[in-house]
Amino acid sequence: MNVKFPEKDLGVIIEKIKAALGGRELGKMVSFDQAGNEMIVTISKFGTSTLTFSNKTVADGSHLKLENEKIAFAHRALKGEVTDKIVKVIQQAGGTVTA
Fold first, then answer.
1. What span, in angstroms and rounded, lies between the C-alpha atoms of 61 and 41?
2. Interatomic CA distance for residues 52 and 3, integer angstroms
3. How far apart (Å, rounded) are the C-alpha atoms in residues 80 and 11?
4. What angle do CA 83, 16, 7 make, to 5 degrees?
5. Cα–Cα distance between 52 and 54 in angstroms, integer?
6. What is the pLDDT of residues 3-31, one digit of tens each?
7. Helices 79-92 and 10-21, interaxial angle, to 10°?
8. What is the structure's pLDDT at 63?
């Protein structure tokens, strides 16, 4: 999964995503954090899964690329559904998602 944002600051991108989560039910089990130049998405409910995105700043903004994913056994059956919800939140925050 690749994500593009017009912003170049990863902290600003994460804040926009958190704002897009708002009061959604998804926000109770998914968190977006920054570790250096990476965005870490943590899903915590009946186990913990993490998605790690590397960030590359380019002329037209930021490109985030899914580099690593650790999916909890309990999450495997719902992976597609949760991924779709995360993609919608990223899009609402102004990002573009490609496979």
1. 20
2. 12
3. 26
4. 100
5. 7
6. 999 999 999 999 999 999 988 888 889 99
7. 110
8. 98
25: amino acid identity, one letter: E
User: CA 8 to CA 77: how far, in whole Å?
Assistant: 34
Which residues have C-beta within 8 Å of that of residue 48, sequence separation ≥ 6?
A: 42, 72
Does residue 41 surpass a pLDDT of 90?
yes
| Token representation of residue 71 | 């999916």
pTM: 0.92
Query: 């597609």: which residue's tokens?
Result: 80
Q: Quote the Cα angle for 53-61-94, to 5°.
A: 75
Sheet-wide strand order for 48-58: 30-35, 38-44, 48-58, 61-70, 2-5, 96-98
Question: What is the H or E stretch that residue 90 is in?
Answer: helix 79-92
